[in-house]
């Protein structure tokens, strides 16, 4: 058995954290090969431990995550692999359903555990139940929810081999519009400070951001905070937002609805600051502070 993982490449750079966690998830299945679009990203990918070969797709048609061409290339390589997948990121989730359709197999999405070559676990009902999926498809196509895995190290030295294959001209890249931020990326940040409806306004979110900057953390938000216009959409954590599992998650003025917990409950240490001692967030918090966030958060920031 061999596994082909599509590596996320953004703006020419390997998304190392997501890819390293995806490698960790599948390494028990057999030899792991990474398909990487781009020269610099391929060099980085070759350093990941547990990877035995990097397939470098050098043709510009595969750059910018162009899904139609990447899917065509993966299908042309599929004969060598029993398993084909990648991290459950926007980049990979754009490609894998096309691969599965072209191979006429199912996609096993958001895998949180690999039981054996045919059997996988994945969360359902906003993470309230874990489904065990046994697939009889000849080839398994899947995405990995990286939050539950540890990144492999970067002491490897895999061989890099150039690959070419079919391309599709159904679409063309025009430009990427990416929100620029000096803060760590939300899904791979080691610390996340999130604000909810309790923060009260866009202006008041400054105190959440000040604490985040003190801790070199990413900023997150509940959907209520996003819907109220306090925080931008790409900060949303939860079932319909991003899934995070940092070492430390600080929830400020967030009640702890199941849809929010679905996006952060795998965090290693959860701190909740809420003025309502009955708030459900305290049931999953490792440390709970019953306090007014407008006093506690600035005080914490200044003490840090
Ligand atoms: P609230 O529930 O209003 O809680 C605000 C909290 O702030 C309260 O606990 C209050 O005690 C506290 N507070 C108020 N003032 C202060 C103060 N001064 N100091 C300290 N504490 C204070 N939600 C998500 O977050 N992410 C999702 O992805 C998501 N997806 C959803 C998908 C679906 C299909 C549905 C139906 C809902 C989804 N939701 C999601 C919404 C979710 O159900 C909740 O409505 C939302 O998470 C509530 O956000 P909140 O905790 O900020 O607000």
TrEMBL record:
Presence of the UniProt keyword Electron transport in the record: yes
InterPro entries: DHS-like_NAD/FAD-binding_dom, ETF_a/b_N, ETF_a/FixB, ETF_alpha_N, ETF_asu_C, ETF_asu_C_CS, Rossmann-like_a/b/a_fold
Keyword Transport included in the entry's annotation: yes
Pfam family, one: ETF
Keyword annotations from UniProtKB, A to Z: Electron transport, FAD, Flavoprotein, Transport
Occurrences of domain Electron transfer flavoprotein alpha/beta-subunit N-terminal (ranges): 3-177
Similarity remark: Belongs to the ETF alpha-subunit/FixB family.
Name of the protein: FAD-binding protein
Species in which this protein is naturally found: Pseudogemmobacter lacusdianii
